[in-house]
Amino acid sequence: MKNPVLVVDFGAQYAQLIARRVREAKVYSEVVPSDMSAAHMLSREPAAIILSGGPASVYAQGAPQVDKAIFEAGVPVFGMCYGFQAMAKALGGTVEQTGLSEFGGTQLDRSGPSVLFGQTPQAQSVWMSHNDSVTVAPDGFTVTASSAGATVAAFEDTTRRLAGVQFHPEVGHTDFGQEILSHFLYDIAGLAPSWTADSIIDEQVAKIRQQVGDKKVLCALSGGVDSSVAAALVHKAVGDQLTCVFVDHGLLRAGEREQVEKDYASITGIDVRTVDASEQFLSALAGVTDPEQKRKIIGREFIRTFEKAARDLSAEKDIEFLVQGTLYPDVVESGGGTGTANIKSHHNVGGLPEDLKFDLVEPLRTLFKDEVRTIGLQLGLPESLVWRHPFPGPGLGIRIIGEVNRERLETLRAADAIARAELTAAGLERDVWQFPVVLLGDVRSVGVQGDGRTYGHPIVLRPVSSEDAMTADWSRLPYDLLSRISTRITNEVREVNRVTLDITSKPPGTIEWE
Ligand SMILES: Nc1ncnc2c1ncn2[C@@H]1O[C@H](COP(=O)(O)OP(=O)(O)OP(=O)(O)O)[C@@H](O)[C@H]1O
Ligand SMILES: O=c1[nH]c(=O)c2[nH+]cn([C@@H]3O[C@H](COP(=O)(O)O)[C@@H](O)[C@H]3O)c2[nH]1
Ligand SMILES: NC(=O)CC[C@H](N)C(=O)O
Ligand SMILES: [Mg+2]
């Protein structure tokens, strides 16, 4: 895409969050690794460059640096934390370990007028996380703020369109972070808020046409939000070259297959085939208890199923392209960011088999769910589909702790259906991001039912609120609703004699249990 704001990732925890905040300001942004050469970055004709935070110390040997060529080219630059320090050093300022560290909420005091801070208060709360500090700003810069642990906490040189801050404007805990970032984008870099759902759709459609040409494409369609939006984009781009395949892997929730089969084509006008592969998935999963192994097996079986569908659909020539509704969180959790850890292998990214032959078409790969929902609505998809709760591709397979088998699936399906029905009846569906129900298949607990002893399995309710699934908090559902769910599950689902509520945020817990 043309003239992006490039976020140079120095190994920050949340580099993508910076890009996301820039996009919230309606300016297109992408993350690039810090070892990309200045010439390569400049060849993208960036509208601006943002330098992220990072774990290194700029004065340490081998620490990543900023190439001065970027400043000489006249590109507007905004440094944050490590990026601020690297910028100060590159331009002749001083960075030192002063012995004063700041972590978490910190008071920032402004001094004098500032384009970057605009009309924000003289004293404001920002989020800091640093050991090193800029002690002398480079020539030509005005120091505009300080904190107890950082005498130079912000500087700007609006003539050269450069600015930097020691704190993190991208995190929600910095009170005026988005405002400060917007001042950089609009008032220092001189950019306009022009990256909208419409412009994303146009660019993606053009890109898909270029990638696919006049060839046929297969879309892995789950009936969920992401693959529906991906399918709608591809359909807009190449029309009936597209065929969607919905896999019933035996790990679906009650009524899910029927819903996709009945509603999907009528809502979207897109051709959907169902493949029943439950036997194949369940026998591949027999005896497996390790979550990562389950995910890899499911990822592999998905691809084997699509390969077979591709052969069945096109006798003369293999279909080369597979559309997936992959989003950025799937990529980053699978360890696909620059230097990020593998938290869990999402079946559609880290769980793909090594011998994958399809060319992937993933128009949503750099986006977050809320951005995808906006695009879905713009494409004319109905709210009922766009606002569906996410449901993971591996389905109930990663919500049964222990071995997955038909009997346990039936138990979990029944409990899950009750929890969902009660949430809907209470009118609280939109207040909750997602509501996993988990069966502790390898745990038993004693109960007393009908005056007799039972020895059943516990169910865990895991309702969460979230903005983008990268972080989450447990939902404070009303007690009477929780009580109804508990009573119904223990009364109606044999094998379950105990219902528990998960009250863990993410981090430390992930949303799913496996
Ligand atoms: N049962 C399925 N049949 C075919 N493809 C699937 C199935 N489940 C998942 N996929 C593929 O894996 C991708 C990732 O799954 P994921 O659950 O993250 O997205 P989604 O189902 O499209 O959206 P949502 O997040 O709303 O559930 C999907 O976009 C789709 O391409
Ligand atoms: O399609 C998917 N394939 C997967 O392998 C997978 N694992 C987790 N999820 C979903 O991703 C979001 C974040 O999940 P976690 O907090 O559990 O990591 C939540 O919305 C999860 O439901 C998956 N989706
Ligand atoms: N969060 C950061 O970018 C930290 C920068 C640098 N490692 C410091 O400790 O000061
Ligand atoms: Mg899904």
Automatic annotation (TrEMBL):
Assigned GO CC terms: cytosol
Gene3D superfamilies documented for this protein: 3.30.300.10, 3.40.50.880, HUPs (3.40.50.620)
Keyword Nucleotide-binding carried by entry: yes
GO molecular function annotation: ATP binding; GMP synthase activity
Binding site for ATP: 222-228
One Pfam family this sequence matches: GATase
Taxonomy, superkingdom: Bacteria
Keyword Zinc-finger on entry: no
Catalyzed reaction equations: XMP + L-glutamine + ATP + H2O = GMP + L-glutamate + AMP + diphosphate + 2 H(+)
EC identifiers of the protein: 6.3.5.2
Residues annotated as catalytic: 81, 168, 170
Keywords, sorted A to Z: ATP-binding, Glutamine amidotransferase, GMP biosynthesis, Ligase, Nucleotide-binding, Purine biosynthesis
Pathway: Purine metabolism; GMP biosynthesis; GMP from XMP (L-Gln route): step 1/1
Residue ranges of domain GMPS ATP-PPase in the record: 195-388
Oligomeric form and interacting partners: Homodimer.
Matching PANTHER family: GMP SYNTHASE [GLUTAMINE-HYDROLYZING], GMP SYNTHASE-RELATED
Summary of the function given for this chain in its UniProt record: Catalyzes the synthesis of GMP from XMP.
Name the UniProt record assigns to this protein: GMP synthase [glutamine-hydrolyzing]
